[in-house]
Write a structure and sequence with these properties.
The protein is an all-alpha fold. It contains five helices and no strands. It is elongated, with a radius of gyration of 23 Å.
Length: 155
């Protein structure tokens, strides 16, 4: 009976240590910081949009079609990777959830504008997509801010 009490005590202590370690891990992780690799990937994707758009406008005489398509594919992989890494490394944040969506919209809109300028797509169509994306961003921000009661949105 004494061994059972000792075993129960050790088990309780082990559980408490695990809970404390989980709390320390979640509070000491970069989740409150916006300077992390997943957000850097989102930033790189947002910044690459205008550059790839410039490559589209310049055309295949200067930038090969393969380079443009590969650049777009790399950006697509980074979109998957930033979310995966944020969850895997417990680096999710309110800022990251907004910025990832904004980076996607910036990237897609930039490429669309480049295609419209180069004549590959009608400008009115890109205008509709850009307006739609701005609406999605605004409504997503509003819904998320209301869900958080506007108190956890500090950067």
């Amino acid at each position: 009976q004494r061994q059972m009490c000792i075993r129960d005590s050790l088990e309780r202590r082990r559980r408490q240590e695990q809970q404390q370690q989980q709390q320390n891990t979640s509070s000491s992780s970069s989740s409150s910081s916006i300077a992390n690799i997943p957000n850097a990937l989102s930033l790189a994707r947002a910044l690459s949009g205008p550059f790839i758009s410039y490559m589209v406008v310049q055309g295949p005489d200067i930038y090969s079609t393969e380079l443009v398509v590969t650049s777009i594919a790399v950006a697509g992989v980074s979109d998957y990777l930033d979310g995966y890494l944020a969850r895997r490394w417990n680096q999710t944040s309110n800022f990251g959830s907004f910025f990832d969506a904004a980076a996607d919209k910036i990237f897609v809109s930039s490429i669309g504008v480049g295609m419209a300028v180069s004549g590959k797509l009608p400008a009115w169509m890109i205008g509709v997509f850009v307006i739609r994306d701005c609406g999605f961003l605004a409504s997503g921000f509003w819904r998320r801010a209301n869900a958080l009661k506007f108190e956890k949105l500090k950067v």
